[in-house]
Structure formats: structure tokens, C-alpha cells
Amino acid sequence: MLDGTPRGLFIGGQWRDSSNNASFTVEDPATEQALCEVADGTPDDARSALDAAAAAQAEWAATAPRERGEILRRAYERLAEREDDLALLMTLEMGKPLSESKGEVSYAAEFFRWFAEEAVRIDGRWSRNPAGAGRLLTMRQPVGPCLLITPWNFPIAMGTRKIGPAIAAGCTMVVKPAQQTPLSMLLLADILREVGLPDGVLNVVPTTKASDVTGPLFDDDRLRKVSFTGSTPVGKTLMEQASKHLLRVSMELGGNAPYLVFGDADLDAAVEQAVIAKMRNIGESCVAANRFHVHESVADEFAHRLAEKLGAMKIGRGTEDGVEVGPLIDDKQRGKVAELVDDAVGKGAKVLTGGEKVGDRGYFYAPTVLSGISDDAALLREEIFGPVAPVKTFSTDDEAIAAANDSEFGLVAYVFTRDLNRVLRVSESLEVGMLGLNKGLVSNPAAPFGGVKESGFGREGGHEGIDEYLSVKYIAIDL
Length: 479
Ligand code: NAP
Hints:
This protein is an alpha/beta fold. The chain contains 13 helices and 24 strands. The strands form seven sheets. A seven-stranded mixed β-sheet has the order 14-17-18-13-12-20-21, sandwiched between helices. α13 links the parallel β20 and β21. The longest helix is centred in the N-terminal third of the chain and has 21 residues, at about 100-120. The mean pLDDT is about 100. NADP nicotinamide-adenine-dinucleotide phosphate (NAP) binds near residues 153, 230, 254 and 451.
């Protein structure tokens, strides 16, 4: 699998070494062993990638929307054909169980299918001036060359939900994948090349020097947009850089999702969905349930049932049969998770299951459920990004809503109740971009994914997703 995966930079339709011939090692987080070397892009390589994107922009924007859509459709089909290969590669470099990697490949491919369909629906508007005389015409045109920066937790899907709409809209792009997981993106680029994406439309520059390599692109006024998925502090830095040439900006940032279980909830469903909301992607997801606020009448039962389920999950290398919990991405991430648990326990939390590292090779951490969380525990405020479920109690709806909103983040919330009035009241009151109602998973390529507050702005997927890559032009007509 590794032998058949490109390891170079992809610029102007060609695979090449980095300009200084440097490379870096990609590691398997389950074994801590090297998988292979990948070309380590330099600032000069990034400039070459933007040269290629800028040179291809005008012709690509003029390409028939149907043609752009059909390239995406072919890519969707090719991803489905190569699902097993892509999933294996993803598990090797990122660690998640194979079944979850397959799920991500199919989720990622769906963005191509969705935006293949959106490419031919980029429309405008014709209307009469309210004053009577005159007409108003609007059209939507590609923004221009984009910089797309993606994280390691969903190595392909975080790419396709930017690349799909950019291709559909007629934008060219430079992609900078995360240094821990460049291989999945490189194979994706090769698949897009195979299905006929013209040279220069997509360029990929892996690197270990993210800010040095992307910095010069922000100084270049040919770049017109940056779309970033990653942590809030890095998002803020990129926004400052984007102000230099007033780039269009999309920011998919961190989360701190509250999971609210009211006294009238279907507890079986609440526990079952909690496993998905917490454990998908080993908890390393921006939409992972970060804190469970459970009504005092059911909190004990909920916590014990969740602990039973999480405690029974099979931990191991993602390639092994039946494994449900892979390693965390690296030692730093595991250290952060352990620190948050130790802090909560030091402040009085009780460990119902887990609470420790597992094994002496690979970055494994046991699925953990904590109860009796004190208000000042750091994991209520910080994104855990690991398999840890803190359960806290509340007594009134107002208290639950206040606790849920007590965060600078606002990506997603989960609400479990059977009371319709409560559903509507709580949904209106929560400061989030998305809400799972009696459901622990919201991601869907046909829906607008994104947050409010410090979780960012802009939407990926849905009808809204392509708007991020289009500018509106208005024409005043004297008629
Ligand atoms: P990160 O450290 O912010 O890195 C994300 C990407 O940005 C990586 O490619 C990284 O490169 C690059 N980067 C880092 N510093 C940079 C700089 N100064 N200039 C340009 N690029 C830079 O985040 P992460 O740890 O990979 O991902 C986890 C975070 O992503 C979490 O906060 C999670 O919530 C968030 N996330 C959000 C969403 C969403 O849709 N809202 C989805 C998934 C993840 P390197 O790999 O070289 O560091």
C-alpha cells in the first residue's frame, strides 16, 4: 500500500521532490514506528504551487460547470472503488480503526458527489427595482485561487469538503495537509489527477514548517481565499495574516460540545448515542461530546451505563479485527488528555472506568468516564480530543442551558428529551452552529457544517458550502 502511494509534492500536475530535497518521516501512532518519508515542502515550493494555481485559474473558471461536476463524480466513484486502500492508509498514519476509516472515506466521497451536483446549480437572480424603473441582475463567480489548510483527525474528509466545492465553483487551490497525515491527501490528489482534473487546479504541499511555508502565500495578492480547519489559536493567527490582502476566510475551528440529557429522555438512546458522540474517531473530533450535562434524576444511571459500554470497548491497532479504539495521534495529545483527567480527579472527580494510559507502545489511552466533576475542572472548558467522558449533573432546564453556553466555543450541542416544547426552547437558546436532537452524530455532506463564537464561521457542505467559494456580482440595468 505504502509503495503505491505518492510521497512527493503535487504541483502543476507533476509529482516532485521538495526544492531542497528534504523529507520527513510519517509515523504509525499504534507502533511509534516510521511508515515512510514524504517530501518536506519549502516556501519556494509553496510559491511554485501558487504560480501553478494562478496560471490555471482563468481557464478553470471558464470550464463548463458540467465538466467540473463530472470530474467530481468520477472522483466520487474512484474513491468508492479504492475505499479499502484509502482506509488502510488512513488507519496506518492516523490510527483510527479500519471500520471508521472506511466510514470516513465514504463520508469524504459524498462531498464529491454532493458538489458534483451543486456545480451545475450556480445561479444568479433577476429582479425588478422596487422603484419600478430599472432591473437588478446578480451572478456568482469563482473567488479565485484558494489556500486550504487541513488537520490530521479526518485526513481525507476535511480535504474533500473544501476541495469539492472549490472544484465545483471553478477555483484553483493549494492544499497544505497536516504533517502527521499527509499520505491520505497525497493519494487523494493522485486520484483526482487520474480522473482528469486539469494540471494546476489542485496543488498539494506537505511540510513540517507550516507557517514558514504558508506565510509567503498571504503576502501574494494572487491568493484570494483561505479556508482553514484546525485549532482556534491557529485560526486567529491565519485571520491576522489574511487581513493583509483582505482574503475571503472560512474558519472551522475547535469545539467543546455539551451533551444534554433531560430527565424525560429515552435513556437507552441517550447512552447508545453517547458512545458515538464521544468515541467516534477516538474522541479526536471537533464535534465530539466534550462534557455530559445530565439531569440529577438519571445522572448516576447514565454514567454507570456509559462506563460499562466504554469499559468494554476493544483497544488496539486499528488494522486488527474487532478493534474499536485506536491510539491517539501522538504522545503530546495523549499527555494532554492524561493531564486533563488528572486535573479533574485532583479536584474530586471519580473514575468510573479508564483513567490511564494503555500498553508501552503506541499512544493508547483507555476510554474513561468520570463523575462528580467540579466546576473548576479544566476539561469543562478545554477541548479534550480524546476518549474521556466527564458527567456533570443539573437540576433545571435554565441551569442546563447556562452550563451548555458557558464556553467560548459554539460548534455543536446534543440534546436528549422527548418534550417538544423543551426541544424548541432549548434549541433556540443554545449558542451553536449545529444541534443533534436525540442523535449523537450530525455530520452530513448535504447539511451546512460549521460553528458560531470561537468555533469559527463559514459552512461546509449543504447548499451553503459552495457559497464560500463564490463572489456575488451585481449589475444595475437601466430598463
Ligand atoms: P492545528 O494545530 O490548528 O493544525 C491544523 C492545520 O494547520 C495543520 O495542517 C497544521 O500544520 C496547520 N498549521 C498549524 N499552525 C499553522 C500556522 N501558523 N500557519 C499555517 N498553518 C498552520 O489543529 P490540529 O491539532 O491539527 O487539529 C485539531 C483541531 O482542529 C481541534 O481544535 C479541532 O476541534 C479542530 N477541528 C475543527 C473542525 C471543524 O470543522 N470545526 C474539524 C476538525 C478539526 P501541522 O500539521 O504542520 O501542524
